[in-house]
Amino acid sequence: MANTRSPGGRRARPAWTVYISPEMPDAMRMSVEVCVRVMGGTVAASVDEAIAAEGSPNGHGATNEGYIVCLSSAYETYVKARESHYIPIVTPIWAFRSVLHNAQVLLPTEKFSANPRKVFSSIVLYTSQVEPEPSKVLRTLIAHSGGQVLSHPSRSATHMLCLRPEGDAFQQALNWDAEGATLQTDTLSDEDVVRAATAFVATNVHGPIPDVVLAYIIGQSHLTKHRIVNYLWIYECIRVNQLLPETLYGFEHNHKPSGVRDVRLSDVVMALQCDSQLFPPVSEALPLDIWRDISQNAAKEWADNAFVVASHIATGLRQRMLDAIQGLGAKVLVLRDNDDDDESVMDGATYVVCAHQTGRAFDVALARGKTIVGIQWLAASLALRTLLPANFDEPTVRNVLWYPAKQFGSIPGMEGLIITLSGFTVRSTPSRDDMQAMIRLVGACWLPVLSRSHTSHLICFEASGEKYQRALTWDLPNVVKFEWILACVQQWRYVPEAEFSWEPKPPKMPKFDVHDALQVLEAKQPSRVTPLKPKEPETSFVSTLTTPVLLRNTQPDATDVPSSAPTAPKPDVVVTASAKSSVKSSVKSSAKTSAKTTTKAAATPARKAATTPAPAKKAAAKRASAGSDASVSVLEAIRPATAKKTPKETKRKGKTQSEPEPSDVVVVKQRRTTARSKTPKRMFLLTGTHEELAINESIVQFLGGVVVHSARAFDPACTHVICKELRRTEKIIAACASGKWILTPDYLRDSRAQGLFLSEEGYEWGLDKVSKDHYCDPRIWLPVAKYWRTHLAAGGARAFDKWTFAILGETVPPPSMCTHVIVAAGGVVLDVPTLLKKFGVQEPPMVVLVADAVKKTDKLLKSLLEKKVPLVKPGFLIDYITKDQHARPELQQYYYLP
Q1: Nearest by Cα to 160 from 100, 279, 150, 265
Q2: How far is CA 88 from CA 54, 173, 185, 315, 409, in A?
Q3: Which residues, other chains included, contact 78 with Cβ-Cβ below 8 Å and sequence gap of 6+?
Q4: 3-state SS, one letter per residue, for 152-187
């Protein structure tokens, strides 16, 4: 088997011993033994033999090394031994990857930990289509969870993360995956692997590794499949702390591999050996120059002291400590773990350096009253070239850090915390480095940026700063003082945050008193159902299946129609769930409704009396005709399994993303409905940060929906808008005006948990008061989204049906937003000269939105004033749609006065 020379920074390891855990399958255990023997290692007969080898002198000025190779399920069996004596506990992939990358050099063990908390251990991933800020968050999270992120596509990687199934990197990943499949490692039998490995070991591993064993090693290293996942896979794996099946987090696409060639085992090995950037040595948590030879600057006080360094400290770090201590002139004493008669060595020690409060060195030192210090204390003393005080009675940050940790590992319950810092500097007390050290000590993840999706705790030096203010805006649950994590380290437990939170925000004044009043009315009149508090929809049957493909093929969308839906006439037309975008077109309503709107829209508020509830079937049909709901599955509660396609369900040519899917077309008849062969796809407009957009887009695609990419603009093709904050933005205002579903992100989260799109009713904005997780602009009437959706579904007119607008100047909101909102609300937008020609010929209302910056000398403004065209402020559009629709603002309140 061909090998390349040792990469820079790695040295050959002539003496190393491996204990192979017996709980592994025979094929895996024998393959590990083959790798160990090929690379010149020794297989230990017991754990004690491997532990004894770790750190022992080999007689050539170096130390031997020991390793334990086991599965993650057996990690707890061996971690107790790790508390007393350092020894790496790694997965079998460490041995496999080492022999594949370079059969003469062992890879660093940090990325192959058998700790089950390191969920991405042995994973090598690269990203595509990810922005710099989310990429920084991804790298931090994956590295904390034991994985490695590459900066470039690589055949040696195991996973590729992307946001969309497109681009050269996506196509290359498909090709690599197809090439790996040609190796057919899945067809190997364990018996053949065991037989070949046993025979190879019997020959004293002479010659190349047998192909069947090599193929098994490559397959177990996940190198035959190039898995393509979305952002949600990372998020969910971290949340549940286990690797989830990648097939559930891929993409539906029509791409096929191109230019795929048959690869051989040697091709894979050569590709791995040529990629020198994989698995670089991990830098130490403390600067390397602290441990350098500083004998020239030695102080006399060091020469009078003797140190014992505990054997549970990592061997490489421990050796650098010993060299630095001896360089300053101090003595080094060695306490052997397996020699009970050797305790007298401790009598001559003045300092005992331990990483945690376990192991023989700590126990003996404690019993003999010796001064015990931590690694951080020794590092600080070496940096200052003086022995610092070792009195740890006061509970300061430095004392907590300078004394050994309570035990090896992390604090239970804190491994999954993601902590961001604010306000700490190199000169603050505690310093930024001190805080990062404490975060590492408890086992949490330090995230350098504040992430709305991932940050679980923000530790602030003081109650100020950009991160602090943003956390308050986001209602981040845990904004705490640094004393919180200090208490966690001192008590070595997860201390509740409540006592250490910064001053809570003053209680907000109630914004929507009308909701409370309606609750009182409902209590007195239980038979009446208001638009604010619809009846709780009946719980739909949800399958326990978790495979999204099966769910989408077998389960109809769980969509219910509120019993309070107004009466609507039965149309005998073809209804589509998506509206076409047209700037100068408006949606036609019934003649009766249009007449009422024309006479009252400009002068009096629109008030709609309660109507008699209509059957759910009628309401759903009319809602679909208004284009406000993408789902009309309520028309047939359970589809026949063998439903035939209607002529309207044939596929069209030249379909774009903005056009309705072929399955979106439904024929609604007076007395019968035609069952659809496929539920129409929901089309989502998303809002939020880059991370939230990535997560929600992954969920939508996972469930079979479509994400409409329109930047910050509104796209009328959408059927749903997801927003965590109900603000006066173009997407939200236009969605309200056109009767779209406006839902909280909880809808996608809960739908993801069930494996299919749930009923939207319980997640619509306006059903309840604003919670701490959701924010509503106080200028918006809370139930406005539900009002417009139900109003249009019942056949009501849009806000600006029969209205004609023109825009003069650079308005606020911008002219483009005004145009999109007007069109979404059923109005027509003309340029000012065209409106002047038609004014007086067409029926009103015809108005012009005038920007504040328009000068009085403007010719068009003078012409408008001469013809007495109504001039209004642009804010009228937003207020007319979003204010209380039972008392709409009047046009006269917004007249523009030059």
Answers
A1: 150
A2: 9, 33, 29, 10, 13
A3: 21, 47, 68, 70, 89
A4: CCCCCCCEEECCCCCCHHHHHHHHHHHHHHCCCHHH
Does residue 279 surpass a pLDDT of 90?
A: no
> Chain-centre distance of CA 654, in angstroms?
35
The residue among 98 and 711 whose pLDDT is bigger is 98
- Coil, strand, or helix at residue 124? strand
521, pLDDT greater than 70: no
- Chain centroid to Cα 488, Å, comes to 27
Compute the C-alpha angle 106/108/110, nearest 5°. Answer: 145
* Mean pLDDT, rounded, for 383-390: 84
Give dist(CA 766, CA 726) in Å, integer.
10
3-state secondary structure of 329: coil
- What contacts 130, CB < 8 A, 6 or more positions away? 138, 161, 162, 163, 231, 694
- One-character DSSP codes across 725-749: EE-S-HHHHHHHHTT-EEE-THHHH
- The residue type of 548 is P
Structural tokens at position 536: 């709780």
Residue 741 has pLDDT above 70, yes or no: yes
For the residues of 514-561, what is the DSSP string, one character each? HHHHHHHHHHH-TT---SSSPPPPPPPP------HHHHHHH-------
pTM for the structure as a whole: 0.60
From the list 580, 602, 598, the residue with the least C-alpha distance to 589 is 598
- 457 CA to centre of own chain: 16
pLDDT, position 69: 96
Angle, in degrees to the nearest 10, between helices 875-882 and 730-737? 50
Residues 311/333, Cβ–Cβ less than 8 Å: no
**CATH fold for domain 418-500:** Rossmann fold (3.40.50)
- Of 666 and 440, the structure prediction assigns the larger pLDDT to 440
C-alpha to C-alpha distance for 75 and 116, rounded to whole angstroms: 7
Dihedral sign for Cα atoms in the order 454, 456, 461, 466 = positive
- DSSP 3-state helix, strand, coil percentages of the chain (rounded to 5)? 40, 10, 50
| % the chain with pLDDT above 90 | 29
- Over residues 352-365, the pLDDT tens digits come to 999 999 888 999 99
Question: What is the average pLDDT value for the chain, to the nearest integer?
Answer: 77
Residue 381 has pLDDT above 50, yes or no: yes
Q: 16-274 and 288-402: same fold?
A: yes
pLDDT of 478 reads 93
- Do residues 317 and 354 touch, judged by C-beta distance below 8 A? no
Report, at the CATH architecture level, how domain 288-402 is classified: 3-Layer(aba) Sandwich (3.40)
Structure tokens at 485: 């994590």
For 226, the token pair is 């190039």
pLDDT at residue 31 is higher than 90: yes
Query: How far apart are alpha carbons 123 and 887 in whole angstroms?
Result: 59
The helix or strand, by DSSP H or E, that contains position 832, with its residue range, turns out to be: helix 832-838
Region of 654 please: left (phi>0), alpha (psi -120 to 50) or beta: left
Cα–Cα distance for residue pair 122/110, rounded to 1 Å: 9
CA atoms lying within 13 Å on the CB side of residue 12: 8
How far is residue 885's CA from residue 727's CA, in Å, rounded to a whole number?
Answer: 17
* Statement: 804-894 belongs to CATH 3.40.50.10190: yes
DSSP annotation of 224: S
Work out the angle between the directed axes of helices 132-144 and 231-240 (0-180°, nearest 10). Answer: 30
Beta bridge partners of 28: none
The residue to which tokens 């975008």 are assigned: 581
Give 821's pLDDT tier (boundaries 50, 70, 90): very high
User: What does CATH list as the number for 16-274?
Assistant: 3.40.50.10190
DSSP state of 491: H
Each domain of the chain, given as residue ranges in start order, spans 16-274, 288-402, 418-500, 804-894
